UniProtKB/TrEMBL annotation:
This is Purine nucleoside permease. Belongs to the NUP family. It comes from Lodderomyces beijingensis. InterPro entries: Nucleoside_phosphorylase_sf, Pur_nuclsid_perm. It comes from the Eukaryota. Gene3D superfamilies: Nucleoside phosphorylase domain (3.40.50.1580). Coiled coil: none annotated. Pfam families: NUP. The keyword Transport applies.
Amino acid sequence: MRFSTFCSMAAALTTVASNPILTKRKIEQKPQTAEIPPSSNDNIQTSYGKPFAVYQPRAFVISMFVLERDPWLKAMDFVHNITIPGLSPEYPVIHCTTDYTVCQVTTGEGEINAASSISALALNPLFDLTKTYFLVAGIAGGEPAYTTLGGVTFAKYAVQVGLEYQLAYEDYHAVKPEWTAGYVPYGAENPNSYPGNVYGTEVFEINANLRDKAVALASNATLSQGNEKNQQFRELYTEPAARGPASVVSCDVLTSDNYFTGNVLGDYFANLTKLMTNGSATYCSTAQEDNATLEVLTRLDKHGLVDFDRIMVMRTISDFSRPPPSMNAVEYFFNRSDGGIQASLDNLVLAGTPIIHDILTNWDDVYAKGEVYASSNYVGDIFATLGGKPDFGKESFDVA
């Protein structure tokens, strides 16, 4: 071993040893080959323990693009930059605070980028995420019946609505005038039927007790109400929630890489949300990435790499998902003047920081073991990958 290499290793180990947050995990003793029972089914199984992980963050903020990332970089002491393989080429760096208790990653927008980046993070041997709390913190479109510009939403359900057949209006309205939209769930024959086959990513349910704690803490924050144009645009709506001030609400998020707007699609996806969750979920925000992120975390929880019970999904409202009565969908989508998205960006930190602060402040007594706010509801996907019985979906379905 070169002397310079030895010095570098010694310095690194000294740094770890001097920081109480970066404690070396106990290495689990693996059985010797002779102790492994023989198998005749030719199925080799592996585990992915991380006995030499260096970083053990207590909270991880997940952003999707630069505008969501920058408020966190300005608000917290993210002084450490860690580059790992597999992250987005646009966002290859993980940021961590001085003592590495809080870190932040930016996935890149869209479902593919989210799944790829979170997989790269969670499988990297440097990070032990088994006790980490994840806060997905992004902006979204909002339903005026439940929220407003700058509003803050915390979800219990995430519903993927892009897994459908699609027909143009001109191609179906003459023969199917009763259809409410040109979308039809996979394996179904009309827009309002439950899918005949599923991929397993259609619905995720997350820890309602932890969500409720995050909502309670965020509700005490003084939120940004935006600018004068934000207020003027709110007044174009008739719904009390849309016209009112930005606040924190508990309601659910949709995932789709297809941006949509208008009353027809808004009504259809709201009904689909009810259909997919047996009436349990209330659609109030629409985003691109959440089901992709949750799918990765579900798979890795199955192998003990993360704890799905420690996930929160927060979306702040940058725009309305449907136009006010005085505007048509085209006019609204391309020519609206609603004052911009700054309030939603500001409120990511204002509403997200309280739960992170609480995690750090009460780590030893409350959050480390994950028992105080452990879920009492079902958590996981439609396949019951993590055990339990989903309170959504059908008794039986075909797996695509």
